[in-house]
Amino acid sequence: MIRCLALIAFLLPLSAQAQEAEPHMTLPRMAEIVLALDPDAQISGPGFSLVIDDIPVLIVTDVRANRMRAMVPIRSADTMTPEEMQRVMQANFDSALDARYAVAQGQLWGVYLHPFKELERDQFISGVAQTVNVAKSYGSLYSSGAGQFGGGDSGDLQRELIERLLEQGQEI
User: Fold this and answer.
1) How far apart are alpha carbons 67 and 114 in whole angstroms?
2) For the segment 30-76, what is each residue's pLDDT rounded down to a tens digit?
3) Is the pLDDT of residue 112 over 70?
4) pLDDT for residue 146 is more than 80
5) Considering the entire predicted model, what is its pTM?
6) In 3-state terms, the chain is what percent helix, strand and coil (to 5)?
7) Which one-letter DSSP state was computed for residue 40?
């Protein structure tokens, strides 16, 4: 048994080396992905604006700080009730997953944050789709669509956006 575990431990690094690592994210690579998701996307220096399912998405990057943020405006935060604020905080814990609800400058946003350089294509696409989903599901499921409990139709409908965008980005 110990010999078998030692062999597995020895082979694991070899199999990991056999898999090609995805290249580090760069601004040109991100631009390629963004344009695959929305050919009409606007690129402005280290930022991007695009539209996914009629939802405007802003992407801001800071390569030196190794950060990126995808953001979707949802509504004014100034008129949110305490119950609505509590509900988005609950969603941040269990159903928003990689996307989050956030408040800045009097606005409620859906956001996805990630280290820039380490960001892989599918992570980026999924993060953008989850951010759009938290905006679309605000007021109902408060979900990113990436993980859903229950037997209803909503999970499949929300997951469809992530699958469609991942498929669009496959060529990159």
Assistant:
1) 6
2) 999 999 999 999 999 999 999 999 999 999 999 999 999 999 999 99
3) yes
4) no
5) 0.77
6) 45, 25, 35
7) T
C-beta separation of 100 from 111 below 8 A: yes
Q: How far apart are CA 28 and CA 170, in angstroms?
A: 16
Which pair of structure tokens corresponds to residue 39?
């050919």
Question: Which position has the token pair 């997951």?
Answer: 159
Residue 6 token pair: 């030692």
Backbone angles phi, psi at 9, to 5 degrees: -60, -35
- Closest to 126 in 3D by CA, of 171, 167, 77: 167
Paired tokens of 85: 């604020």
Torsion of CA 125, 128, 130, 136, to 10 degrees: -140
- List of long-range contacts for 33-39, beta carbons under 8 Å, 24+ apart: 33/121, 33/124, 33/125, 33/169, 33/172, 34/59, 36/168, 36/169, 36/171, 36/172, 37/125, 37/128, 37/165, 37/168, 37/169
Q: Which of 123, 132, 139, 142 is nearest to 38 (CA)?
A: 132
